[in-house]
Amino acid sequence: MPTPSMRAADTRWLTLYSFTRAAFSFAWVAAAIALGRHDAMIAAVLLCLYPAWDAAANYLDAIRSGGLKRNPTQAINVAVSALTTLLVIAAVQHSQSWVLAIFGAWAIGAGVLQLATAVRRWKSHSGQWASVLSGAQSALAGAFFIQQSFALSAPPIVTLAGYAGVGAAYFLISAIWLAVNASRSRARQAAGT
Q1: Reduced to 3 DSSP states, what percent helix, strand and coil does the chain have, rounded to the nearest 5?
Q2: Which of 30, 38, 118, 124 could anchor a disulfide with 128, C-beta 3.0 to 4.6 Å?
Q3: How far apart are alpha carbons 40 and 20 in whole angstroms?
């Protein structure tokens, strides 16, 4: 059974993780809007980078949170995101519609896996409601991307920038929620001693 100090360390990690995910996504959105929509090569690199980052982030979080065996939803997410990266690398050379469809399928799968991870963490960590909402929104957005891929009107980088921005906001909300709750918990402990 985790001790209070272990739970505090886990919360600090999850807070840092959430802030890092938010910062990366906000930076990715800025690069997509400022550079990617004007330069196809930069857009291609950004499109490949996004699921690769998700794979790396899920891997680090799973390892830090007890390993891949104890975190099967994240282990699957690592594999799914890594495969998506390879598929996007192939698709950017052929069809923007395929890129958006691949992102759509990935958003559905990654969203469901994120939701499952958040539900599993619900009892041990506050702020998971934001991750639940983010996972559900991701799955819905994925279905929209697949639909849009049949009648692509804007480059995928533009369409996906909004999606990444919403995801960044959810990670930021979760990080702030975790940080505030940890601060309140420390204050209660200090008052009780």
Answers
A1: 85, 0, 15
A2: 118
A3: 27
